Prior knowledge:
Blueprint: H1 5-44, E1 58-69, E2 72-84, E3 90-102, E4 105-119, E5 122-136, E6 140-150, E7 155-158, E8 162-165, E9 169-173, E10 175-179, E11 184-188, E12 192-195, H2 198-207
Antiparallel strand pairs: 1-2, 2-3, 3-4, 4-5, 5-6, 6-7, 6-8, 7-10, 8-9, 9-12, 10-11
Amino acid sequence: MHLSKKQSIKLTIAILVIFFTLSIISIKLNEEKGKQTQDINEASGEFNDFTISKNAEIILNNFERSSMKNGKKEWEVISKKGTINPITKKATLEDTELSLFSKDKIVKLKANHAKMEFVGNELGNAKLKGNIELNINNELILNTETAYYNKTDGIVTTKSPVKIDTEFVTITGDSMKVEIDNQIVTINKNVISVIKPKDSTSKKRKKE
Length: 208
């Protein structure tokens, strides 16, 4: 088939129009594909790079946590409020009660403030501060301002002044150590014991 010069020009123009149209459509499709890929990445949050800030904290209200072994409770923490970092597993608590169990006996500490470490689901070391009451098996109560629980050694220590006030005697000292397993209390430095008169104890009994 023989095309005139005029027909050849028209055919060439038509081919060019079709070529540029297809190019534009291809560019649009690639842009849309790229946008969809970006949207998918944004929606997925790029989980491979997902991290939690070390400063993140979870608020705790009426916090309770404990551990059981062989059907017996090992420790228990009760707190009215506080925070815990999900990465470091460190908790800052207020109005806290820490109970440590050993051989059917219990050492219980109450404090205004506490900082505790958790290793997995287990309790680590703990620092307590403010109006501390240390109750040993409901038989002996000590009062102090700071206390430190060493999980590895199984002891509670304080470098703050300590006071034991019973019906018969008042004992004070500059520091203290309590061995959890055998419940031995050692008061160190400037230990003073004051035995209360029998009259005062008998009067208390009459009033009761």
